[in-house]
């Protein structure tokens, strides 16, 4: 369900991971707890900065590629009106495309959002019909560029950078910048 797209949920995940890992590797409890504490310390500040990026944007209504962005939308006081991909791996039907096109027009939505590495064919068809923009959001799942020597702060930086990029993409579309 991509619940990590809400920083509050990511904090809960870090705490649960620390507790679970400690139950398996009790000798590392201090390290696990310290890592969870770093997440608890840094993510709220990062989320606050993201909220600030949305100042003046209001409460954007989003149409996204994937309904997993509901957690992101909720975290930043946006409404997810519709997802292009209703079922994983399926393209939108003609009926869904007409419905999404109507939503874009009726709500004056300036842009719709695809997923990095996801299909943008349907979004581009809707954009051609409505004149809206197509922008990309990250599902915050790619840690592959971090090597085995990465520490918790590297992971937090990666998460916050991607989260900030998502918020900047939304703010950019809704402010026309």
Give an overview in words.
With 177 residues, this protein is α/β, with parallel strands linked by helices. The protein has 6 helices and 4 strands; from the N terminus they run ααβαβαβαβα. It has helices at 7-24, 29-53, 70-75, 94-107, 121-130, 152-175, and strands spanning 61-66, 79-85, 111-115, 133-137. Strands 1-2 form a two-stranded parallel ribbon. Strands 3-4 form a two-stranded parallel sheet. Strand 3 (111-115), helix 5 (121-130) and strand 4 form a beta-alpha-beta unit. Helix 1 packs antiparallel against helix 2 (29-53) and helix 4 (94-107) packs across helix 5 (121-130).
Give the topology, please.
Blueprint: H1 7-24, H2 29-53, E1 61-66, H3 70-75, E2 79-85, H4 94-107, E3 111-115, H5 121-130, E4 133-137, H6 152-175
Parallel strand pairs: 1-2, 3-4
Helix pairs in contact: 1-2, 2-6, 4-5
Task: Supply the key terms.
single chain, alpha/beta, 177 residues, two-stranded parallel sheet, elongated
Radius of gyration: 18 Å
Shape: elongated
H/E element string?
A: HHEHEHEHEH
Question: With helices defined by DSSP (H or I, 4 residues minimum), what is the helix count?
Answer: 6
Please state how the strands of the largest beta sheet are arranged side by side: 1-2
Percent of residues in helical segments? 40-55%
What is the mean pLDDT? 92
Q: Could you tell me the number of beta strands?
A: 4
What can be said about the biggest beta sheet?
A: 2 strands, parallel
What is the terminal separation in angstroms? Answer: 30 Å
Structural class: alpha/beta
Percent range for β-strand residues: 5-15%
Low-confidence stretches: none
